[in-house]
Amino acid sequence: MLPIQTQSSSSLSQLHFPNPITSFSTFILLPSTPPSQPITRKRAPVTSNSIRMGVTSSSSSKWWWQRALGQRFNGEGAASFLRVAAAEPHLALPHISVPDIRSVDWPALRRLGFRGVIFDKDNTLTAPYSLALWPSLSSSLRQCRSAFPPIGIAVFSNSAGLKQYDPDGAEAEALEEAIGGIHVIRHEVKKPAGTAEDIERYFSCPASHLIMVGDRIFTDVVYGNRHGFLTILTEPLSLSEEPFIVKQVRKLERLLVNTWSRQGIQPPKHALVSEAKKCVKVSPLKD
């Protein structure tokens, strides 16, 4: 089954990606921390009014720069990129592709037998580094919460809730408050590495009964497909906060996926979905 093509994603085949091998090599070699002495800091409580993740009144600009640089480099993501491109391209193809979550028919997915939805955070529900829900998504998120039971929705992020960047869970708590109490799963390993055990334990069901929603192909989609989730790929909400190299890697990801789709490669089969189009709204903006 090929990913659903939308008007916003169809133009990706026309993207011009200058020297992708050089750009991706730079991405792989980018250090996760700057070559300087370790920086110590005192941690202040994070509130839902924070504008950027990890920036509080006691945080220095050096710490924020160090953390932001670390979040932009995902060593496992880079290694996964190469493994998938070489031998497992089907893992990079989502079951459903949509502009954003407003295009997803949540009640239809619930009727198919799915028991829960896991959202990525940055550029899926919020702008990068933000603790505020993207305003236009509030209606769709309410519909999702209505379709699934109270504990049927959670966030699984490579920022909030990840021990490396949120060791005491303060940012996860602030995000939970900002998005109406939706639980942020705490975990220790960045997607796409690690297992699905933390997620399956929270939902008390196998990953095959869950939906993974995210904006990154070689993190969210690959992680989801590798563990048997139904995968939904969204377009990023905002690129203004992303560095140049991340934007270039996004383009390369999309170009590869479009190429593999044209070659007839399909995402992994999912037992609960025989026709993904039934789960996509025709006129999502009317909600």
Automatic annotation (TrEMBL):
NCBIfam families: HAD-SF-IIIA (TIGR01662), YqeG_hyp_ppase (TIGR01668)
Organism (species): Canna indica
Protein name as catalogued: Haloacid dehalogenase superfamily protein
Entries under PANTHER family matching the protein: 4-NITROPHENYLPHOSPHATASE-RELATED, PHOSPHATIDYLGLYCEROPHOSPHATASE GEP4, MITOCHONDRIAL
Superkingdom in the source lineage: Eukaryota
Pfam families from the UniProt entry: PGP_phosphatase
Molecular function terms, GO-annotated: phosphatidylglycerophosphatase activity
Entries under Gene3D superfamilies matching the protein: HAD superfamily/HAD-like (3.40.50.1000)
Gene Ontology CC terms, in alphabetical order: cytoplasm
